[in-house]
Amino acid sequence: MEEPLVRPRPLTDEAAGLRAGVPELSEYVDRLCALVERVDPLIRAFVPEPGRHERLRSQAREVAARYPEPGGRPPLYGVAVGVKDIVHVDGLPTHGGSALPPGVLAGPQAVVVDRLRA
Question: Contact at 8 Å (CB) between 93 and 47?
Answer without folding.
Answer: yes
